[in-house]
Specification:
Strand order of the largest sheet: 1-2-3-4-5
Radius of gyration: 17 Å
Number of helices: 5
Structural class: alpha/beta
Helix content: 25-40%
Distance between the termini: 21 Å
Strand content: 15-25%
Largest sheet: 5 strands, mixed
Shape: globular
C-alpha cells in the first residue's frame, strides 16, 4: 500500500517550531535499529526489512542478504553522544562487531568542534576498553540533500563523519520504492507520514 501525504500526529502537535524533535529522533532511530535483529522478522516482516535496510545504510554495507543481524544495542545521550549503536553481525559463521556514533540534526546547527569532540570521546572509550569493532561516524539529518541549509553540515567529512540526508536515508530504507506502511504505527508515524 502506498502512502498519501498524511500528517504525523506523533511528530506534530501544537508546539511551535521543532520542539525537541531531536530527542524523539534519538528514541525512534534507536528503536528502529533494534528492530533489525533477525528474530524480529517473524511478526513484522515489513518493519524488519526496513530496519535492516537502515542499519546497513549506516554501516555502508551493500551486499547483506546473507548477513544475519545477531544483536543491536543502543545507548541514547551516552557520554554526550546522541546515539551509540553496537551491532553484532554474522555471515558464514563469522561474527563481526560495528560500533556506530550517530549525531542527529533536525533543526540545530553544529557547534564548533562538536563532531571532533564526540568522536574523541567515542574513540577513547573503545580504545581504553580494547573493544575491537569497525567504527562508523554518522551525521544524520532530516534535511533533504537538495535543501540549501544542508550546506551547514558540509564540514562533517573533515571530522570523518558521513552525512546522510533524509532523502538518501529513505531511499535506502525503502529500497528505492515509495515509503509504505509497516506493521508498526510508531514506524509509520515517524518514517512514513509527513512532519509538516
Amino acid at each position: 500500500m502506498t502512502i498519501e501525504k498524511n500528517k504525523s500526529f506523533f511528530m506534530m502537535d501544537s508546539s511551535e517550531g521543532n520542539a525537541n524533535k531531536e530527542a524523539i529522533m534519538d528514541f525512534v532511530v534507536s528503536w528502529t535499529l533494534r528492530m533489525a535483529v533477525d528474530h524480529k522478522k517473524i511478526k513484522r516482516p515489513i518493519l524488519h526489512k526496513c530496519s535492516r535496510n537502515l542499519l546497513f545504510k549506516l554501516i555502508g554495507k551493500q551486499n547483506f542478504k546473507k548477513t544475519r543481524v545477531v544483536k543491536v544495542e543502543t545507548w541514547k545521550q551516552y557520554r554526550k553522544i546522541d546515539l551509540w549503536v553496537r551491532i553484532i553481525l554474522e555471515e558464514n559463521g563469522v561474527r563481526e562487531q560495528h560500533d556506530v556514533l550517530i549525531e542527529d540534526k533536525v533543526y540545530s546547527k553544529l557547534r564548533d568542534k562538536q563532531l571532533s569532540d564526540i568522536r574523541s570521546v567515542f574513540d577513547k572509550y573503545l580504545d581504553e576498553e580494547q573493544i575491537i569493532a569497525e567504527r562508523h561516524y554518522i551525521l544524520l539529518t532530516c534535511m533533504e540533500s537538495y535543501d540549501a541549509n544542508i550546506n551547514q553540515y558540509s564540514k562533517a567529512s573533515d571530522d570523518g563523519f558521513t552525512l546522510i540526508p533524509w532523502d538518501e536515508l529513505m531511499v535506502a530504507m525503502f529500497a528505492g520504492r515509495k515509503p509504505m506502511y509497516s506493521e508498526s504505527e510508531i514506524f509509520n508515524e515517524f518514517w512514513v507520514k509527513s512532519w509538516n
